[in-house]
Amino acid sequence: MRLLRSLFTSPFGRAVLGCLILAGWASFSAGILDGPVARDLRTSAVYAAPGVELDEAAAERIIGNRRVTVAFLEPGADLRSGCDGVRRAADGTVALMISRNGAEFDTYGCALLPGADDENFGRAAVAETVIGSGIDPFVDQPLEAMKLIAINYDGLVKAGTVPDGARTISPSLPRYLIAGAALLAVVAGSSLMYVTAYRAGRSTAVRRAERDTLDDARIELSAAAGVLAQQIIALDGKYSLVTTRTGRRGARMSRRTAAVRREFAQRYRQVASDYTELLGEITKTDAGSGQDVGSLTARVEALSARCRALGRLRLGAG
């Protein structure tokens, strides 16, 4: 119960409820509860029950667009009930229920015209009486009976008993609303898909540009790191020489040379330490974490400059 309450108090739930109400209204106005007679007469002028021999297409052509509807029911059918069942479906017409009774027709007319129960009650009664008059001789010729019904209706129109004009069959308002809602859903859905695709494409392009920039920066970092590694290897060879007691067997170094070599060894050890730390940061960056690639490249270049300066020291005996 709480789930239902929370559902129908949310915006989504209210939207669903509104759609259900609209769908129910549309279904009811479209005749979802109609019987077979009303279902046919809602969109046509003639109905023939199963077993009744009638060319419905020819009968439709005889009636044309007159405001009259005719239902040929099975023998013994309740004509009055049939008339009540088509009041909504055949609204605005003069309806005639017919069933065969031996050698004649049983008929029941109902004028479903505006004001038939009020100011036009008398005219409606005349129309109900006249519309089916004179058709008994054509019990075996239903199309001829249809022609006479059409003539009777035209006479009612000329007498001013029923209003002139053609019958128009149009979709109900809920159908228009549903059609409009469907169109709106298509337009809104297409727009949403376009906006989503546009944003996704734009985001993908931005990410690709950032990825390309990062790849370029990584290439630059790798190149700088490769140069630095070569410098470290070269300096390491010199370091191995200056850390021996004599640079050449039996030769004695001057104080100046010894001081330069001590400075070189001290500075090289610091450079090697910094290189080891920097190499760890580069490894983290390759794994997707660590410092920014640009800052690491700057540190590599700075350390490379220190290596060049260290390599220019004169380490020979003097």
TrEMBL record:
Taxonomy, superkingdom: Bacteria
Full protein name: Uncharacterized protein
Organism name: Actinoalloteichus hoggarensis
